[in-house]
Recover the amino acids of this structure.
C-alpha cells in the first residue's frame, strides 16, 4: 500500500546518493587499474538495483546509462591485459547492466500496478464499510445539526428579549456544534477519498476515539457495549491515519457482528506499549470465538466465515499493517470470544491516552 512517498529518511538526506557516487567511483577505479581480463564493471549492477529501489524510471535509466558510460571509459583507459578479452568482458558488463535495468524496471512497474490495484480495493472496502454505517453516520451528524437549530432559535429569543449575553452563549454553542459536524464530515471525506494520505506522527488513542464516533450508533442498534482501555503516554506511530482507521473500523465492525445472538455483547478496544518501539492495538469481543476457524488463513484473501462475506477486509488490513512495518494476528480471547491484534512501529513519545 505504500509507494515511493514512503522512502526511508536516509534517501532524503544527501548521504545515500553520495555513497552511491563513491561506490561507482570505486568500481570505476578498480575496473581501470585491473587487467582487461577481469570484468569488474559487472558490479555496476548493484548500483542499478539500488537505484531502482529509490528512483523513478527516468532516474534509473540515467544511472544505468552513466554506469555503461563508465564501463566503456574504463575499457579505453585500461592499459594492461588482452584487448580481445577486454572487449568481451566490456560487452558482457554492458549487457548485464542493461538487462538488469530493464528487468528491474519491469518488476518495479509490476509492483506499482499491484500497489495501485490494492489501493483501489482498499478504497472500495472503505466505501462499502461506510455504506453499512449510513444510519450510524446520519445519526451522528444529525445530533450537532439539531443542536445548531435549537441554539439558533434560542439566540433569536434571547435577542428579542434584550439579553445579548445569553444570546452570545447560544452563538458559542452553535459554533461548537458546527465544528463538531465539520470534523465528522472531514473524517468521512478522508475515508472516502481515493488516494491514501502521507504518513504522519499518529496519536493512536485519538484515532480510536474518532473511529468510535462512527460506530457508536451501530453498536447501540446491535445492543453491543463498546469499551476502551487506552494506555497513557503511548509513543506516536509513523502511519497513514486513513489506512489505520480503516483497519480499526474493520476490526470493530467484525467484532460487533461476531457478538450477534450472544447473551453478552461486549467489544473492547485496548492499546498498550509492546516491546520497545512498538504500539499494540487489540480489538476483543465476547462473541462466538474462533472455533473452527483456521487461524493461519484468517487473513488470506477470500477466506471468510460469513455466508455473505467476500473475505477481503482482513486481507486488506494485513496488507495495510505490513506496509507500515507492523504485523497483525488473531487468537482466542479468554474466557470467550476472539481477539485481533496489530502492532505498529512507534516514534517519539508524546501521546496521552484515556480510559473510558
Amino acid at each position: 500500500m505504500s509507494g515511493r512517498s514512503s522512502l526511508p529518511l536516509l534517501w532524503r538526506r544527501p548521504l545515500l546518493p553520495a555513497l552511491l557516487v563513491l561506490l561507482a567511483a570505486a568500481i570505476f577505479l578498480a575496473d581501470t587499474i585491473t587487467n582487461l581480463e577481469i570484468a569488474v564493471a559487472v558490479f555496476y549492477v548493484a548500483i542499478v538495483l539500488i537505484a531502482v529501489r529509490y528512483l523513478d524510471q527516468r532516474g534509473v535509466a540515467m544511472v544505468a546509462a552513466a554506469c555503461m558510460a563508465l564501463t566503456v571509459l574504463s575499457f579505453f583507459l585500461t592499459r594492461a591485459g588482452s584487448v580481445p578479452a577486454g572487449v568481451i568482458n566490456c560487452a558482457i558488463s554492458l549487457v548485464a547492466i542493461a538487462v538488469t535495468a530493464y528487468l528491474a524496471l519491469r518488476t518495479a512497474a509490476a509492483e506499482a500496478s499491484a500497489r495501485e490495484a490494492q489501493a483501489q480495493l482498499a478504497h472500495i472496502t472503505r466505501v462499502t464499510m461506510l455504506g453499512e454505517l449510513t444510519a450510524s453516520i446520519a445519526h451522528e451528524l444529525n445530533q450537532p445539526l439539531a443542536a445548531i437549530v435549537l441554539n439558533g432559535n434560542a439566540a433569536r429569543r434571547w435577542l428579542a428579549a434584550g439579553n445579548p449575553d445569553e444570546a452570545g452563549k447560544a452563538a458559542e454553542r452553535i459554533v461548537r456544534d458546527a465544528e463538531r459536524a465539520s470534523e465528522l464530515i472531514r473524517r468521512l471525506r478522508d475515508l472516502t477519498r481515493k488516494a491514501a494520505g502521507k504518513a504522519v506522527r499518529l496519536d493512536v488513542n485519538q484515532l480510536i476515539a474518532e473511529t468510535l464516533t462512527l460506530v457508536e450508533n451501530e453498536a447501540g442498534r446491535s445492543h453491543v457495549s463498546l469499551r476502551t482501555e487506552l494506555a497513557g503516554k503511548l509513543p506516536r506511530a509513523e502511519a497513514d491515519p486513513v489506512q489505520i482507521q480503516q483497519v480499526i473500523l474493520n476490526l470493530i465492525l467484525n467484532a460487533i457482528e461476531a457478538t450477534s445472538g450472544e447473551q453478552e455483547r461486549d467489544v473492547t478496544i485496548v492499546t498498550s506499549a509492546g516491546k520497545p518501539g512498538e504500539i499494540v492495538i487489540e480489538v476483543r469481543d465476547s462473541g462466538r470465538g474462533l472455533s473452527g476457524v483456521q487461524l493461519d488463513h484468517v487473513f488470506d484473501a477470500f477466506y471468510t466465515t460469513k455466508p455473505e462475506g467476500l473475505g477481503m477486509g482482513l486481507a486488506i488490513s494485513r496488507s495495510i499493517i505490513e506496509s507500515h512495518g507492523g504485523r497483525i494476528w488473531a487468537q482466542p480471547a479468554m474466557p470467550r470470544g476472539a481477539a485481533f491484534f496489530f502492532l505498529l512501529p512507534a516514534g517519539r513519545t508524546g501521546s496521552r491516552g484515556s480510559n473510558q
Summary: The CA atoms of residues 108 and 166 lie 64 Å apart. Residues 1-13, 348-356 have pLDDT under 50 and may be disordered.
